[in-house]
Amino acid sequence: MIAKPKGTNDIYGLDAKKRKYVFEVIDAICEKYNYVYMETPIFESSELFHRSVGETSDIVTKETYDFKDRSDRNLTLRPEGTAGIIRSFIENKMYGNLTEPVKVYYNGPMFRYERPQSGRSRQFTQFGFELIGTDDVLSDAEAISLAYNTYRLLGLDVVVEINSLGDKESRDRYRKALIDYFSPNIDSLCEDCRDRLLKNPLRILDCKVDKDNGLMKNAPSTLDYLNEESKSRYEKLKEYLDLMDINYKENTKLVRGLDYYNHIVFEIISTSDKLPSKIALGGGGRYNGLVSELGGPETPGVGFAMGIERTLQVMDELEVNFDIKDNIDIYIMYGNDNEKDTACYLLQELRMNGFIAETDYMNKSFKNQFKSSDRYKAKYLIIMNDENLKDYKVCVKDNSTKEEEIVNINDLVDYFDMHI
Ligand code: HAM
Predict the structure, then answer these.
(1) N or C: which end of the chain has fewer CB within 10 A?
(2) What is the mean pLDDT of the chain?
(3) Which atom of ligand 1 has the smallest separation from the CA of 258?
(4) Which is more confident, 214 or 336?
(5) Up-side HSE of residue 305: CA atoms within 13 Å toward CB?
(6) Which of 89, 258, 312 to mutate to test the pocket of ligand 1 (most atoms within 8 A of CB)?
(7) How far is the CA of 250 from the centre of ligand 1 (A)?
(8) Ligand 1, from 80, 267, 306: best to mutate by most atoms within 8 Å of Cβ?
(9) Beta strands 357-359 and 330-333, pairing class
């Protein structure tokens, strides 16, 4: 037997139905917020992720699936969705005549070579959205609101952790403060953090190895290094979040694991104790320099991505109700070839009129067809016999009341329209 690769999952049965339900909720809410569905390739040039996610980020240094194709191109399975969307935004010149922001969302597999554990796999799925072309604080609030309300519609009570990294000037000042703070004690941190000190000191705060090191506790806070403009943006955002009644909490240590952020960053944190503590169900932020970094015109943007599997895991643990249809409308029963021909015709007719119809494909006895209809939880049965068929009629049985009625075949669609 050939087993699936480590860190991947087969999704089938009830789990697949639950996933589909989550995607339906996502489609519905994105429609309300006026976001349009979009797809980009699952693999991109490696350089795209080096320049966006960041050369020194954990994702790029340790977690990407890199390969060369048969023409020696350096390609990478996407570890996240934003870089591809922005690449496409630039390549397709979506920035031309930008009278309204571009609002897009996506769903799909992402790949990170991480140590598989609860809530962490090598192939996982993200629902993400991006709002590109405006710097207005109201668009930050919209991003947080869409993220937050998606979890709420899925039946989860969540808290949004927020922080501001400020603009480039604020971030540079903060960077310097971190170097000054960590330098004297850098030997007490892990090898990666020693490497990060000069290349990318913000990453130290995100280190999975040193997260409990006492040094982290008293590390400088981003908020003390925000300039006036960054500060007032952040204050305005909190006002908007209050107006929208969003449950948020400030976390001054939140820096996020990707390099492209400035100003607002946010994460939705699981409160479930069965997942590793503080594991994020989703995260996002503003990335005003990303479009120009990737070769497009200076264009601001903000976005978010949800980990679908983690979200489903928490929904299961909290026994959230999934609105999943697990029964069929009509089961058609037949006893001979003539009746089977009618079943063939009726299946087509009923399905094309919007009903979930099923029959027997295994030459079962009537008794076993009844059992099948119970397994399918059929609301109605169509039971044929030659006598009725001569008059172009069938017996329809309501499976809950057990009442039976003889109905003309031509009237069946109307009959079920009235009853189902
Ligand atoms: P991220 O925080 O790297 O952000 O990933 C978003 C979410 O994907 C995480 O919060 C988590 O739920 C899920 N996730 C990440 N890695 C794994 C894994 N190995 N296994 C299972 N789930 C995982 C981004 O990817 C940004 N592109 C979000 C964004 C969009 N920022 C702006 N726009």
Answers:
(1) N
(2) 95
(3) 3
(4) 336
(5) 19
(6) 258
(7) 20
(8) 80
(9) parallel
> Which of 50-59, 249-258, 358-367 has maximum average pLDDT?
358-367
Query: pTM for the complete prediction?
Result: 0.93
Cα–chain center distance at 104 = 13
> For the chain, which domains are there?
13-167+227-317 (3.30.930.10), 330-419 (3.40.50.800)
Assess whether the C-beta atom of 111 lies below 6 angstroms from ligand 1.
Answer: no
Residues whose CB is less than 8 angstroms from the CB of residue 387 and which lie 6 or more positions away in sequence, other chains included: none
pLDDT at residue 312 in the model? 96
280-303 pLDDT tens trace: 999 999 999 999 999 999 999 999
Cβ of 171 closer than 6 Å to ligand 1, yes or no, is no
User: Residues 167-226: pLDDT tens digits?
Assistant: 999 999 999 999 999 999 999 999 989 988 988 899 898 887 888 888 888 899 999 999
CA pair distance 253, 169, nearest whole angstrom: 19
The H or E element that residue 124 is part of is strand 123-132
Task: Give the Cα separation of 192 and 298 in Å (integer).
Answer: 32
Q: Does residue 279 have a pLDDT over 80?
A: no
Widest Cα–Cα separation across the chain: 95
- Whether the CA torsion 29, 35, 39, 45 is positive or negative: it is negative
User: DSSP class of residue 225?
Assistant: G
The residue with greater pLDDT, 382 or 279, is 382
Q: Tell me, what amino acid is at 200?
A: N
Hey, which residues does 43 pair with through a beta bridge? 77
Find out whether 278 and 256 touch, Cβ atoms under 8 Å.
no
Q: Is the CB of 311 under 6 A from ligand 1?
A: no
